[in-house]
């Protein structure tokens, strides 16, 4: 077995400090992406906007492989299966005369098979329409409380069973940020003023219970002002709130047209034993399951000291706090039905129930993640978008994969396994660093759409060939989308070899050797590179790190040479070429007991005729080397 140099986690000191509080084994490869996938690779389809878009909103299209993108006065209907069939629909969002602003789409929902629900704003006066996607038929809708006034304001909304639930402010000035049932057939209902303190809404979702539809609920996730105003308390805390879909508001005297089932609880994410919490919810994704009790909430939190944490909650646990916790500040007898219970006719609820619901909507108990002791993942990356996919391969255990976008436009593909993260890959979707404005996952086609100001990129999550040509490399990737079958690393289907739990590649040895490598590309051993190195000049060889979890080393004349690590290569440095340094150089990688040859060179002395050209080459390589090391 070779030993070599392993590059795991050049973690910043702050992260190190906070990791230290968690566990000493955190310095393994847990926080280092195993592979880096550059934008120049395969597996991307790009759609460039005719002009840069300052603000975009995504919606899944009707047909497979299509998405709608709401932009500046336009709706793009992008077909990634056949880009030339994409269309651009101009939106007649009216800009008031004399106002120089431009209109951007803020809200985009599917209403029914033929109609979309679209809102836009110029920063002053939002407008909403019910329209076909060819815009040959449209109907104006009152935008009050549906569309935010500015594109910088987050106001998630949700269409469910023809009803629109919104969180936008009602008036341009002042607050009025409520969770409301704003539009549809059912009675309009909003929040009691005392129920919230300057909320910033992050996400909204609907949870249906097939066995008991009366208990269908809407949940919102938000930040609000911390009631604890002591100087060392974070000014913000995070919450989840519930309301029942059947809720029609209270009686004539109490909570008339206001939620009677509104309850909120604190979402805790941190290390309770250290009293260290990540208080600010930035993004949330709800992974819905067939049975609602199995649904999971993934929250991305930030801290006052700019670290990010991800916590995973169970929907059943959230519901359990709302059904069993004490009411904050209330010590009387809990009335019957318990406030927050979904009832057929909320307008007939008795005063004692409505009073508790109105005055004490906060739960005493906090909602803790599934693993209470510590967040699922912490990072010094500023993750700002999240989608989660459930990957099911027939014959294998299902696995959840988190897709996290950093502020600087990188995607981390993270496996959730035994309550621990494994960063499968860092994906660079854009050729130059760009801010990710929007991201949605199509779980059916396993495509992730990410949008910057300039383009929308469809990322193929099943682009498996990039893990390498061998069975072991395929298994070591631990990518649940991928498996080894038919001589290649490919989209995992029944019978494919994979070992997502811990990358155990022992099954590969049972596969006949000739099926072990992809025949087309051959074995790297056939690809020795010859390099001319004149005497006494410095020289270097570079070996690309295909896996950042592997140890790399160079071998020459039975000697093992540790490498100098650059960002993505294991470098062999020769200060001055000597006769005994000529010959064969092999770079090996070793990971989990599997060793493979990455690259191979033969250094040969220059002969008279090639002296000049090799000098040029050496000069070039020194310049390149300086660049690589810096
Ligand atoms: C669109 O492009 C495909 C090839 O990518 C081509 O086969 C097809 O004819 C094009 N369709 C149109 C309408 O231009
Ligand atoms: C969708 O809703 C619009 C507006 O209410 C209506 O005109 C249209 O017929 C509906 N389409 C379908 C397919 O139900
Ligand atoms: C709008 O266009 C669609 C398809 O182009 C067509 O099916 C529909 O009948 C049109 N509706 C109206 C009201 O013209
Ligand atoms: C959902 O799961 C819970 C807990 O595992 C179980 O009690 C319940 O019967 C399940 N419901 C359905 C509809 O399968
Ligand atoms: C956190 O990041 C923000 C934005 O990058 C910056 O303005 C702020 O100073 C940072 N705070 C700390 C404590 O580093
Ligand atoms: C490397 O080691 C082997 C066995 O130990 C030996 O036979 C061989 O001559 C050595 N090669 C060199 C170049 O020293």
The counted number of beta strands is 41
Structural class: mainly beta
Unreliable stretches: 10-14, 19-27, 514-524, 608-620
Per CATH, the superfamily of the domain at 524-629 is Immunoglobulins
Q: Major sheet: size, sense and barrel closure?
A: 6 strands, mixed
Instruction: Give the percentage of residues in beta strands.
Output: 35-45%
| First and last CA, distance | 31 Å
| CATH-defined topology of the domain at 524-629 | Immunoglobulin-like
Radius of gyration: 29 Å
Q: What can you see in these coordinates?
A:
With 630 residues, this protein is mainly β. Among the domains are: 33-53 and 398-463, no CATH class; 56-150; 466-521, ligand-binding face of the semaphorins, domain 2; 524-629, Immunoglobulin-like (Sandwich), CATH 2.60.40. Helix content is 9%, strand content 36%. The strands form eleven sheets. Strands 1, 34, 36, 37, 40 and 41 form a six-stranded mixed sheet that branches. A hairpin with a 3-residue loop joins strand 5 and strand 6. The longest helix is centred in the last third of the chain and has 19 residues, at 611-629. The chain is elongated and about 100 Å long. The protein starts with a strand and ends with a helix. The model is unreliable at 10-14, 19-27, 514-524 and 608-620 (pLDDT under 50). One 2-acetamido-2-deoxy-beta-D-glucopyranose is lined by residues 557-558. Residues 1-26 form the signal peptide. One of its GO terms (biological process) is integrin-mediated signaling pathway. Residues 34-461 form the Sema domain. GO terms for molecular function: chemorepellent activity; integrin binding; semaphorin receptor binding. This is Semaphorin-7A-like.
